[in-house]
Amino acid sequence: MISFFRKIRQKLLTQNRITRYLVYALGEILLVVIGILIALGINNANETRKANRLVENILLDLHGAIRSDTTSFTGQIETLQIALASTELLKKVISGEVDYSSEMDTAFSKIDLIFSSQSDYTIFERLKTTGIELVSEDSLKDEIIHYYGDSKNFVKYSEEVEALANQVFPKYFTAYSFGVSATPADIEELRNANEFKILLDYARDASTILISRTIHRKQLGEAILVRLERYLGTALDKRSDPYLRTMPYDTVLDKSSNRPRF
Question: What is the rounded CA–CA span in Å between residue 14 and residue 16?
Answer without folding.
Answer: 5
